[in-house]
Amino acid sequence: MTVILYGIKNCDTVKKARKWLEQAGIDYRFTDHRADGIDAKQLDHWLNVLGHEALVNKRGTTWRALSDEQKASLDADTAATLLLANPAMIKRPLLNIDGELHLGFKPEQYARLFNQ
């Protein structure tokens, strides 16, 4: 099984997800959007699978710092450009289990995903 966790290392929810995976003994790789960057092709895949409404974090400070014009123009066509320029706006954590994508973290969600 290949498990990759995407996020930002100082995000509290990502920290909780990493701790859960470690305590459950699940081998995973962590990729930090901010430090490691994001591949445009990978981001396009995420947008195609999850949709821009699910993938864009509208609760964070990066979203709030955008102009009203940028917020209003967000759609499927503009999301990739916006997220590549502002990787902190990608909802996190994003968990990839053998190619299957899951957004967010709740202990019970991860327990189901890993049959724990």
Characteristic key phrases:
alpha+beta, 116 residues, 47% helix, Thioredoxin-like_sf, four-stranded mixed β-sheet, Glutaredoxin, Tscrpt_reg_Spx/MgsR
Cα end-to-end separation:
15 Å
Q: What form results from the Cα inertia axes? A: globular
| Total number of distinct structural domains | 1
Average pLDDT over all residues: 94
Share of β-strand residues: 5-15%
Strand sequence of the main sheet, in spatial order?
2-1-3-4
Structural notes for this entry:
This is ArsC family reductase. Pfam families: ArsC (PF03960). Belongs to the ArsC family. With 116 residues, the protein is an alpha+beta fold. It has a single domain, classed as Glutaredoxin. 47% of the residues lie in helices and 15% in strands. It has helices at 12-23, 33-36, 40-50, 52-55, 61-65, 68-72, 79-85, 107-113, and strands at residues 3-7, 29-32, 94-97, 100-103. A four-stranded mixed β-sheet has the order 2-1-3-4, with helices on both faces. A hairpin with a 2-residue loop joins strand 3 and strand 4. Helix 3 packs across helix 7. The chain is globular and about 45 Å long. The two termini are 15 Å apart. The relative contact order is 0.23.
Summarize the structure.
By secondary structure, this protein is of the alpha+beta class.
